[in-house]
Amino acid sequence: MNSIFLRIYGGMLGVLVLVAVLGVLSLQVVNQVRASQYREGLAQGTFSLMADNLALQSEIERKRALLIWTRLLGVPLQLLPLSAQPLDAGQRSRLSQGRVVVEKTGAHAARVLRQVGQEDWLLVAQVKQISEQLARATLYLLADELVRYPVTEQPQRLAQLHQSKGFAFAVALQRIERAGLDDDQRRRVEEGDTVMALDREGDAIRVFAGLPGSPWVLEIGPLHQFDPYPPALLIAIALVGLCLIGLVVYLLVRQLERRICGLELAASRIAQGSLQTRVPDGDADSVGRLAAAFNGMAEHLQRSLGMQRELVRAVSHELRTPVARLRFGLEMLEAANTEQGRAKHLQGMDSDIQDLDELVDEMLTYARLEQGAPALHFQQVDVQRLVERIIAELAPLRADIRVTRVSDLDGESAPVQVEAEPRYLHRALQNLVSNALRHARSEVRLSVQCDARMCRIAVEDDGPGIPEGYWERIFIPFTRLDDSRTRASGGHGLGLSIVRRIIHWHGGRALVGRSETLGGACFSLTWPRNQAPR
């Protein structure tokens, strides 16, 4: 019952395991990139301030500033030539854009590089660990920059520094009473000390320092510790996803297998002879389309078998008459005393044999057409010449019937080309004209009408016509009417069935109606002038 489910689920399990392995590897790469960006973000603002200040100073001032900053940071600072450093193209591009480059040298150690202006000098620091000293140095550098401006302009200048230097954390000026410090921390800030405090959530720190001669307190942060994505999270997500996928796949496959079992059961019933069996085909998915195709096959099979039964019954009935006449002829031939009598009976028997031959030929033709589309080789056919040929072939058979042709085409002498299978189209028109000649009293008329898309040929006669109730039934094999169109006028009841089947394979229709001009029957064939590719 669950074989399809197990195969699908096993395949998805394998894919999920592969995705999980790739996910773990990707997670490590992502964490490395995030850690690098985190370190660069922490160092960007501070080292940009130092490098931009060095760009404005003389050589002596630079040495003095480096000594002061080294004591503040607790990190050795150097100025080294940029051209002498082993850097790749990406690092050099970042440095030329004013970005900080952080090269990891250990578990917590890193080498920080920042270009000094547009000069061939690099500010290089060997950082063992981001510590409180880096925060203090940042506050010192910001405070040193802000005290050069009036108190009213300090917030605006701080905002400019935050934007231009690329700080990855917030920097702000606020009143000390709004900083959320306790009494001891406020006292230390007022005494010029640097204070570090946890934020309200307790997962980050904020650093405060007072500005000399200013009512503002300088705050940086919150500074969050780097939090890599844990591999356990990916594993948990994979397990939950696996369970959900399994549940969804099981529900879908269970419904799928139920419907497939319905198809299997219906096929078994049809194989046992229950041809009326059908399966629900309302859904638009692949199984629904399969069910619709299955029902179509079952209907075609039921229709074909029913037609075969009718055909067998009709053929057996049609064969009885000429066979009975042949038997009667043989009996009469034995009883005939004169040569003239024997010749008469032999001629009748020859006519019966010809009827049998024609019946067999009609049945074989109809059987071939019913089996499916024959090998149709469409060619350009001149409709007017085809009609004239059929008239020339059949008109002499009934010298007492006038056969005329009417054309609604411009310039009747011009050829009218249509795509058709010449042999089968000739057979269809031949059957219609032969049928009209058998039942006409004095005239048969053929008309041709063609436009850019369609072609129509109508065959009319002045015979008794066909009642409207028989207009569809007349195309059913072995169907005959009870009026003057009987066996006495010839035919086996297969000609019109062959006509409709031939024109169907041409993508057209065969119709019957009443002739408005002659008063008898009017048969028409309509099909496209150009056949679609098959």
Strand order of the largest sheet: 10-12-13-15-14
| Distance separating the two termini | 42 Å
Tell me about the largest β-sheet: 5 strands, mixed
Mean pLDDT level: 79
User: Helical residue percent?
Assistant: 40-55%
- Helix-strand sequence: HHEHEEEHHEHEEEHHHEHEEHEEHEE
Low-confidence stretches: 482-489
Shape: rod-shaped
Query: Radius of gyration over alpha carbons?
Result: 50 Å
Number of self-contained structural domains = 4
Q: How would you characterize this protein structure?
A:
The chain has 534 residues and is of the alpha+beta class. It folds into 4 domains: 1-123 and 230-274, no CATH class; 131-229; 298-370, Signal transduction histidine kinase, dimerisation/phosphotransfer (DHp) domain (Helix Hairpins, Orthogonal Bundle), CATH 1.10.287; 379-528, Heat Shock Protein 90, CATH 3.30.565.10. It is 51% helix and 17% strand. It has 12 helices and 15 strands. It has helices spanning 3-55, 59-73, 89-96, 132-146, 154-165, 183-190, 231-271, 286-335, 339-370, 383-394, 422-439, 495-505, and strands spanning 77-81, 101-104, 110-115, 121-127, 171-175, 194-198, 204-210, 216-224, 379-382, 402-407, 417-420, 443-450, 454-461, 509-514, 521-528. Strands 10-12-13-15-14 form a 5-stranded mixed sheet. Strands 1-4-3-2 form a 4-stranded antiparallel sheet. It has a 4-stranded antiparallel sheet with strand order 5-8-7-6, with helices on both faces. β12 (443-450) and β13 form a beta hairpin. α9 (339-370) runs parallel beside α12 (495-505) and α11 packs antiparallel against α12. The radius of gyration is 50 Å and the shape is rod-shaped. 22% of the residues are buried.
